[in-house]
Specification:
The protein is an alpha/beta fold. The strands form five sheets. A three-stranded mixed sheet has the order 5-8-9. A two-stranded parallel sheet has the order 1-2. A two-stranded antiparallel ribbon has the order 3-4. The longest helix is centred in the C-terminal third of the chain and has 16 residues. The model has no long low-confidence stretch (mean pLDDT 93).
Length: 252
């Protein structure tokens, strides 16, 4: 995100920029953690304002699709989101593309929808994750992914939305794509697949998911080691999760 903002600030007066941090339904970090994150994202850039999204706020705006508006990928669906979305001249969403265990893929399309939505809308969308069609790296007929694209279509019918998606494997950004949120996502999926997806000829009898880095901080996050890999293990097989989890279970 810092690399994108730095390039943007070279072309637009930073005083015209407002930076909105998409938290989704996740708990607010501490004040110290928030300031540290802001420093890492903004660096020397000084935007007009910085805000953290709160999904349970009473001050969210209704994003109701304009007549005949929205992207043809999905029928626009009304939802409630951060009021800055409707106050802006335009929205630039920045995302990271990697497999998501029930939304198919992460990316800017989720940043500017689920990341900035009301808790009830996130809950409604994520309830569809019970469908067996919700799998990592799968968008076709995935009801969670389709719901996100419907939310995106509603937003796009009201305000110009551009996106930059990045693929980061380890410390390096290995690919980037821009344009609409849909084109940025699909532009990055080949590189993300090469970086993160492995195909097997047959399901394994046993698999060890050795989770490291930020995902190993808590069981809440380390569970992705199971969910992203379970389809590679045969029915009745064994999956072992190894993660340090210094923060224990994680958020309530």
């Amino acid at each position: 995100a810092h690399a994108v903002l730095r390039l943007l600030a070279e072309r637009i007066d930073p005083a015209r920029l407002r930076v909105l941090i998409a938290c989704g339904s996740h708990a607010y970090p501490s004040e110290a953690q928030r300031r540290a994150f802001e420093r890492s994202v903004l660096g020397e850039i000084r935007p007009a304002a910085v805000a953290w999204h709160e999904s349970r706020s009473a001050d969210l705006a209704t994003i109701s699709p304009a007549p005949n508006g929205g992207d043809a990928l999905a029928a626009p669906r009304p939802w409630r989101g951060h009021p800055w979305l409707l106050e802006a001249e335009a929205v630039l969403a920045v995302g990271s593309v990697e497999p998501h265990y029930f939304a198919g893929w992460t990316g800017a399309h989720k940043t500017c929808t689920i990341g900035l939505a009301a808790y009830e809308d996130i809950e409604r969308n994520h309830a569809a994750a019970l469908s067996p069609l919700c799998r990592p790296a799968c968008l076709d007929a995935n009801p969670v992914a389709e719901g996100v694209l419907a939310m995106l279509a509603a937003l796009e019918s009201l305000v110009p939305v551009a996106a930059v998606d990045l693929v980061q494997a380890g410390p390096e950004i290995v690919a980037a794509a821009g344009g609409s949120a849909g084109s940025a996502l699909f532009g990055c999926i080949p590189a993300a697949s090469a970086a993160f997806v492995r195909r097997t000829d047959h399901p394994f009898d046993a698999l060890v998911a050795d989770v490291t880095g930020p995902l190993a901080e808590s069981f809440y996050q380390a569970d992705k080691g199971i969910k992203n890999n379970e389809h590679a293990v045969r029915d009745g097989g064994c999956l072992v999760l190894a993660a340090a989890c210094p923060r224990g279970i994680g958020q309530d």
